[in-house]
Amino acid sequence: MTLTLFDTAVFLVFIGSVVALSMAKSRKEKDSEDFFLAGRGLTWYLIGFSIVAANISTEQFVGMSGQGAGNVGLAVSGFQLLGSVTIVFVAIFFLPRFLRAGVYTIPEYLEYRYNAAARGIMAVFTLIIYVTVTSTAVLYSGGLTFHTIFDVDLSQAIWFIGFVAALYATWGGLKAVAWADLIQGSGLLVGGILTMVLGFVALGGVGNFLSGSADKLHMVLPANHPEIPWTVLILGLWIPNFYYCGLNQFIVQRTLAAKDLRQGQLGIIFAAALWLIVPFAIVFPGIMAVQLYGHQISSPDQAYPTLLRNLVPAGMRGFILAALAGAVISTLASVLNSASTIFTMDLYLRHWKKEASQKSLVAIGRVMTVLFVLVGCMLAPQISDPKFGGVFKYIQEFQGYISPGILAAFVFGFIVKKAPPAAGVTALLACVPIYGFLHWQFSEIAYLNRMAITFAAVVFLMGVITAVWPLKSPVELPVKREIELHTSPQVLWLGAAVIAGVIGFFVVFW
User: How many folded domains does the chain comprise?
Assistant: First the structure.
């Protein structure tokens, strides 16, 4: 694919506008609350677009689209659609507790519920996953997209993406990221829909697409499917979704920065509604790519890039490329900001320098942002190894080592008021060997169902520990912000509408 002068101008204006706006809006960030939580002043539309932009990147445009093009088909949309359901529950049940406690990070809440050891363990595990899995996958998928479309060097593309994301994440922290996401979140959804429309035109209409790809347009797959059997809709798919939507720092951090509970909840519901667009903007184009250019696709991860290379006309390429670049840069910037927040607040301030000044905390956050992006850029090319099974599976598989244990620690702690600190610590530590054993000995079981088995085993251990050594009285959690725990009727109705939309999609594409 070649770019016209107009395409190049659109691309440069888009990226330049994102960086300039984010830096201008965050130029007064001075203390840790400003840098890591945008001064706790984000409004609903910023939160919603920021969640979408943080979530949707080339790991989706490449990985999820690739799964759609492969043997999974439309069923891969289950991650995003059930995510819309789980994030509604997060808004109602999780967010009020987090805002009331006034936490900077999700691991911080575990110290209040259990002890400092639980907080430290989750912080270390999360950092490892962010730096070695999430950021590397985002960098690799973004680099692969540009390599496939424009035949640029993969490593050069990876380092360019890392540089731009680190630039504004280091400059202004979460507020810079949130304002950049406002543009990039809009751009990537519009770009995805435009690509879908071009695909319909190339195929001769919606009817030809539906008839030509009928075998891939099912949300419910047989029980013996190796990756997403229908059983995961009942079991395993909920584990990564609740972890990702409710306990994953780089998604939740913008809700922790909400001006108040109402703004945070409305932002989450808005993001859930926007997620309903994902099957159309990302998965449909991947399926279309096989129908149109199947002979040119040597691996599923090349489906979306191949579609863009062949389908997008001159004059629109600059915008599509800018949307894709914005998608990967916004997600990477979010991961970097969240990783630096966890390192600074949960490890550096909590264990190494408890009297650190606000200025030094911001400085440490910036230094760690740069360090993390350097590590990610060096590791990213390794994901091309076929043994990882593609970008999307790589992320989900390796998050399974921590997500069931983290989810169990939180949910059990919410429900069972007398669960002792030992139960929380055990949940976090036991998850790794249990899931590792299942991964090693029972790899034929779908990884999502392995997560469900791990979650059940961890909850059982927590139950035994609580039965033997229960707390004498429930833990009193701190109240740092006067936040009511009830949810407004408007939020409940909007959340119900989103859930109805998800159910409708499953009914249509059963």
Answer: 1
